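Methods: example folding runs. The two proteins below were folded one after another, and each record is reproduced exactly as written to the output file, sequence line first and structure-token line second.
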Amino acid sequence: MGELGCTKLTKMDVKEIEGSKPVCMKLYKTNAEEHASIKKVTNEWKKYGIVIERSRTGEL
């Protein structure tokens, strides 16, 4: 995961659209195994700055 987004096969620029808002979804039920898997992935994303922690109300 440390090289997430790195490839020598292609090159791209991701541009933020002016006025766009972050994606935020309501919580949904998962079993313990799914919850652990989701938590592991999101923790890695946080570690590499892909996502940030937000409050339940969506405030930063």
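Second run, written to the same file directly after the first:
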Amino acid sequence: MKKMTALFLSLLLVLTMTAALAETDITLWTFPIGDWGNSEKVDEMLAAFNAVHPDIKVTVEYLDYTNGDAQITTAIEAKTTPDIVMEGPERLVANWAAAGKMLPLNDLWTDETIADINANNASVVATCQGADGNYYMYPLCMTAHCMVINKTAFEAADAMQYIDQETHTWTTEGFENALRALVNAGYFPTGLIYCSGQGGDQGTRALVTNLYDGRFTNEEHTLYTMDSEANIKGLTKLQELANEGLITFDASINGGEEIALFVNGTSQMAFCWNAAQVANNKDKLADGIELFPMAFPSEDGVPRLDGGVWGFGLFDNGDDEKVAAAKEFIRFICDDETQVRNSVYNTGYFSVRASVTDLYTGTEKAANADYAMFVQYLGDIYQVTTNWTTQRYEWWNLLQRIGDGGNVADEVATYIKNVNL
């Protein structure tokens, strides 16, 4: 009897160990958020994860902002969605979670985590919650989007006088004066208001709303407010500047293509910019270009910048084992005290947590640290507003119509009719 018991216990131990070592396969789809679009860097992070969790295999697919949304939509329709997706609340929360495709992540959110994030920025936590109060995103990093100018051209045109070089801010009047100085000195095109699609649209939104202190949505994130007096004034100003030949509406390019035209020296500023673009474009800069990051121009010189938050969400694929493994991956990437620094560093942005700081000093991304100065100007993170996907489509169409000479008030009325449900 004792031999039978010993044999049974040995068999039970073997079965337990086998189960513990059984590999769980999960999939991660990631948009190109800094080096999270670089397979070499991601492989390094996966190796660190597997050193702790050798029983979980993560397969990665890299998306881009041209086709990524369509790939996700196709996967949803075919019921082949990934276990984890890395992006921002405009997709994870306002789109896919609102459509009932994502799993709540409430168990990842501890009181300590919430306090740590709130100590850094009070807007982040709410952007990760759906209308039902559940958390559908676990955030990793954030940034304040900005713009950039070619300081070399500005100096040659004597346009730096219109900029507060200490704070990297300027007024709407200073912006207009700088454009005029650039054109008079032979620098044209100055800036390109790109509107071929939604890519980089955070830049054009911030440009319009900052000019005269407008707001893109209401505080409740239920309505779009482009029809406010301030916003119509901002759009009208851009149309006037274009008519005067000081700036250009370009319906043939998106934000990424605008960046390419800036770094190759075609234009003298870019509205689609943030800390991560420094490393992304370091080897592409044409000779003679000196990057000088700027806040968007505002009437009083105090900007309200658009923010970006990125993190992880889980699709509801009906497999509890994969869900548990996916949550272990997210915990490791975002919560491990050592790994979280590397995880954020690879984005090129800044941590959502007050406890994670000074990531770039003395590194090859040291220039990214300069962009921390813009975080103080971070405004409302409104990308979770109702009907966000439709709004993004309508926004670039609105800019195209205004660039073609349409009546601003009439074109905005059409936009508002289409985006406010």
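Comment on the second run: The domain at 146-304+387-419 is CATH 3.40.190.10 (D-Maltodextrin-Binding Protein; domain 2).
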